[in-house]
Amino acid sequence: MDVLQQYLNNIKIPKPTDKVYKDECVYSFDNPETDSGLYVSLCTFIGLGRDYVEKHYNKTGDAVYLHIRREKHEVCCQQQGDGPEKKITRLAIGVEGGFAADAGCKKYEYTDHCSIVVLPMFTTISWPNVDLPEIVKQSVHAIFEVESASKLAELEALKGTWDGEARVVSKHAQNLQQLGNGKKIPPSGWQCEKCDKTDNLWLNLTDGSILCGRRFYDGSGGNNHAVEHYSQTGYPLAVKLGTITKEGKGDVFSYSEDDMVEDPNLIQHLAHWGINIANMEKTEKSMVELELELNQKTNEWTALTEKDGKLKPLYGPGYTGMTNMGNSCYLNSVMQMLFSIPSFIRTYYEGMDYTLPLSQGDPAEDFTVQMAKLGHGLLSGKYSVPPPQGSSPDADPPGICPFMFKNLVGRGHPEFSTKKQQDVQEFILHILTLLERNSKDVGNPGQCFKFQIEERYQCGDSKKVKYLTRSDVILPLMIPMDAAVNKEEVAAYEAKKAELESQGKRIEPGLLVRPRIKFFSCLEVFSQAEVINNFYSTAAGKMVSARKTTRLSSFPDYLFIQLKKFMLREDWVPIKLDVSIEMPDEIDFASLRGNGLQPDEELLPEPDNPPPMPAMDGNVLKALEDMGFPPESCKRAVFNTRNSGLEAATAWIMEHIADSDFADPFVPPGTETTKFTADPDALVTIMSMGFSEEHALKALKATENNVERAMDWIFSHQSELEGSSTPAEPEFKDGSSKYKLKAFISHMGTSTMVGHYVVHILKDSHWVIFNDNKVALSEHPPKDLGYMYLYQRVE
């Protein structure tokens, strides 16, 4: 025990508010179950793997650690025979196939082996041990008792959610209008008031009408009578009959908020219609359960995960899987894709100085540290080894669980901090923003995606032109359904499907015929000229018609292409286009190259005194904003429909909701200036923080007057601002317009909020499927069913 005496003053007892990293190393994916176990500092409560504990001691002097090594044992189940079919029991959207069954008889027991370890000699003292100093015993006991930092972060992220799906209290719940029309709802025998449907029925809480729900994408569900009733009456809340429980819970949908919501007054609202919840039993499937059932029926999952094939598992560097942490497949797919790109490998793996993470502060909250940790976890091969000979065929495959990374990148974000499924396109934009903000020390590997968009406007009166440019990192392409090359086959399939449905039958998923569209048809839609009917011409001094074309001014090293598969139907129902796009392995995008001002073109004059913002119908603007649309998009809708009313403005929004500039600040077409003018308030804000006017102007120009981004820009461009002799990197990389397909992410499910993502990546001349922690050689990569594609430029 003498070896401990000199360190006793440094030992601390963790308080309930302290972060204790006892689940995993903060610099690697070592944990108590790895062979070398986990070392938890009795001073800082940092958890460290064997590769890092000595480095941490050399840098900080922390010498005393609690060493935890955990053994996992599978316990045999006593159940005999095949037993009943496993039941889907929980919201598991995001796990393989979009659903999860009970674990059944697969159970585990854990045995912890603990000791006190003192560095630098790794002197080991057994635990428990009555002879240990009291401060050591109190510290270790407290480490065992307090919640781990990971658990605390998870609880914080899930606050106010149910199984990871946040349901906000409806704005209608407190003051819901309920009519005194004398209706009383019987306890059973319900039927839609407009058809013969007796399931999927919704009780409108305002007038007591019972109507069937929406039709699902496979033809099941209802006949849309409940949503049609809302469009006619405006009565917003409905509860699904059969999902109401004795506790006063049930599936409540708000049509005006377009989401499942909480109604804290549901008991009272039901009592108005004579419903006593004490007698209610749940008999209908909830919306979650129905979604999971649909995921099981479709053959999309089989195709995208290559379930029909006997896929060969792959192990080693670059073939490490990632555990699905409850709807984290979007994160897993994106990060696997990013870490297949050389700039990410160089920055966060090959070029990373592994003494750098051992810095001051909390390494679990350092973006560079966690990116380096993720890079090492995916690329080193340490966590991707074949299972021991004789292992169970259904043993969990190896992989890493990037919980600290997910918690860090999602912190403070209204969506990515939850366990809800997310859109990979939105997550890519989010992670690239974080890279830009945190790249001052290591360089920004995400620069390889950045390209410049050129927008050309030609005045219909004067024929003079105007060029505007903006930056982007993803090229979104609309899908022209009328360009399908197999229209006759699709029509025959739809007719057969309708015939079977009329007989109460369903068509087999294996007989599905998808519209087949050539990728070049999507490119044609992007490159087509668009007519702008209310363009302000500075040459004509009035509103005129103009033609707008969009091109690429630069071609990045890697080009993200998003196929716009998600949209809203005319009745506001979100749908996903189930199409097959013939994606080429190699392509030349030369036809999209923008060339700027041509010798025979004359520029429109700059606006000296731009016309005032046109008058807009305030009632329509408010109505649109009440529907939840961004204020700037509402202005766009009213302007582009020339104040012709709510219906026209709503239709415009439905058509343009996927536009990349949908929520950007609205400037009437033609009044934009190509000369940069700094926002005076933004300039004052940045200069008040001690930066020069010159630096503030450069930052605001580079970030389009965004103060937050401008501050990040200043910190990441210090050498450029200080006049370094090293030439600054060009803002946009450019080169050949020829590309080859490098990777693609596929989605299965009916919307971005549900389903599952997998990613296929071309590695060492063969396609590899990364399906969370399962990594295998791909036999039939479904290139035609992808959602987000990554093309690599070839010279």
Automatic annotation (TrEMBL):
Pfam families: UBA (PF00627), UCH (PF00443), zf-UBP (PF02148), zf-UBP_var (PF17807)
GO molecular function: cysteine-type deubiquitinase activity; zinc ion binding
EC number: 3.4.19.12
Domain UBP-type, chain residue ranges per copy: 168-277
Span of domain UBA: 615-656, 677-717
CDD domains, per database record: Peptidase_C19B, UBA1_UBP5_like, UBA2_UBP5
Positions bound to Zn(2+): C192, C195, C212, H225
This protein's UniProt keywords: Coiled coil, Hydrolase, Metal-binding, Protease, Repeat, Thiol protease, Ubl conjugation pathway, Zinc, Zinc-finger
SMART domains cross-referenced by the UniProt entry: UBA, ZnF_UBP
GO terms for biological process, alphabetical: proteolysis
Superkingdom of origin organism: Eukaryota
Domain USP: from-to ranges: 320-794
Family: Belongs to the peptidase C19 family.
Protein name: Ubiquitin carboxyl-terminal hydrolase
